[in-house]
Design goal:
single chain, alpha/beta, 10 strands, binds iron/sulfur cluster
Amino acid sequence: MSYTNRSDGMHYEGMCIRPPSEANSILLQATVGCSHNKCSFCGTYKDKRFRIKDDDIILSDILFASRYMRGIKRLFIMDGDALIIPYRRLTWILDRIKEHLPWVTRVGVYANTKGIKLKSPEELVHLKELGLGIVYMGIETGDDQTLTAIRKGADFDRMLEMGKKVKAAGIKLSVTVLLGIAGKERSLIHAKETGRLLSEIDPDYVGALTLMIMPGTTLADDLSTATFELPDNYGLLMELREMIAYTTLSKGLFFSNHASNYLPVKIRYPEGKEKALQLIDMALDGKVSLRPEWMRAL
Ligand code: SF4
């Protein structure tokens, strides 16, 4: 899931993250770090100062991929929120990808609400025409109080507006939500509000991850001072159950099969919802075993 300073031609800097579904993609690091870099639970880019890499480095990596990654149909632009790249530069990158990697059929990026807001609806449509096929957006929760607490930089309404904007451009939208992020006290409010937000955005994919506390983050400090309390396994399962129960998607896929989760679930909405709820109820009754702690990882 991460690369550190590979020296085989691609200019990767530091730890690089990509979505699990981009495991086999060409990974092009066009930005370093995250332009927001303030979320209380996230330590991924703490050691990186955000910047967009020089065009000649980006082009050199595209040319390297054109020689050694022939036939790989998907490409993911890293790091944390590459959609923040200004429109003109992004079109230049997508044009170079088309020119030198004509076999690539889908380009993906991580995006936060700011990166989406800075693009007009017409620009998003044009980016789609140039190959941008999927946007991954971390919404984490639909609970406004929690969104403020974790310093996500957007509230329910902004998440909704930006999620819909991506979809309206015809770009696939994959969102992640975080089980446990609201702590013990607001767990079920988080589940309900997140279900409401997911239902309104109606994304193509939802990935539910379980919060793993990263050392050095504000949230780790809050945990050590007992300002923040994680729900236990039972509480996290209840949270997942409520989130699924409050979520209605027209045809999206809901995954909670990430390695961080205690119970892997994959639901094709709308028909798979009831079966998934039954499975979670069985797990809550102790009739289905959970993933042991040592097998969980980010
Ligand atoms: S926007 Fe994403 S990458 Fe940036 S700090 Fe928040 S969680 Fe981390």
